[in-house]
Amino acid sequence: MSTFVRTADPYGDLDVIDARAPRFNQATVGIGALVAVLTGFWPLLAVLAAQLGIGLRFGRRYCLPCVAYFELVQPRIGEGPIEDSRPPRFANQIGFAVLSTATLAYLAGLPLVGAGLGVLVAFLALLAATTGFCAGCQIYRIGARLAGIRRRRLDRVDLAELGVATRPAGEIVVSFGHPLCTDCQELEAEVRASGRELVSVDVRSQRRLARKYGVALVPTAVSVAPDGTVVARLAG
To answer: Which domains occur in the chain, in start order?
Structure first.
């Protein structure tokens, strides 16, 4: 009997997550919210909000859908692609806020408002679970690019700070990634296969550099001229 081996520890490697885990959680939330609205048993919305809030505050070990996925589902279907955990976490924050508001609407005697918000959560959660399109994740990515990532910090890169001892002869690719991230590994493999020089920055061990250059998503990759000027953004 083969032993299931994970690439990423679901309870320890919190910077990343199996991409299938958020979809399982979204399916749970979506089905629960739909049942709550259709049956009129609105306290179920409060239960779903509480589960999201507990998981956000105390970690995946205390999130029942998360534990169900990692302990019951993942060992049977295998580990999916490993991705940055920040976008789905932000989506959970939105879900928690909307479900909490729906609960308060019911408590305030506004069942139509509560039901409307419940249907919205059910629709978006089930859309994400079935198609992979996560509206909250997309909002995070757009916000990161427009505000949080502060792209001006990546107009220029200090190559010496990244360990490039001598001035390169031509453009090089600087990739900010996580060692467990599937997309990061694929991007870096493509760069190496193309023959381009690559400088890889591990954001897990180089958090100061990740903060300095405003890396809000992995992979983030740029093409850099010999003087450190960023000439093209390749990812992130």
So the answer is: 17-146 (no CATH), 150-235 (3.40.30.10)
| Contacts with 27 (C-beta within 8 Å, 6 or more apart), sequence order | 125, 126, 129, 130
Q: Do residues 17 and 178 lie in contact, with contact meaning Cβ atoms separated by under 8 Å?
A: no
Taking the C-alpha atoms of residue 74 and residue 43, their distance in angstroms, rounded to an integer, is 30
Mean pLDDT of 179-188: 94
User: Three-state SS for 149?
Assistant: coil
**pTM (2 decimals)?**
0.86
Question: Residues 129, 133, 115, CA angle at the centre, nearest 5°?
Answer: 65
State phi, psi for 12 to the nearest 5 degrees: -115, -40
- Cβ-based neighbours of 25, under 8 Å, separated by 6 or more: 63, 65, 66, 69, 88, 92
Structure tokens at 178: 């996580």
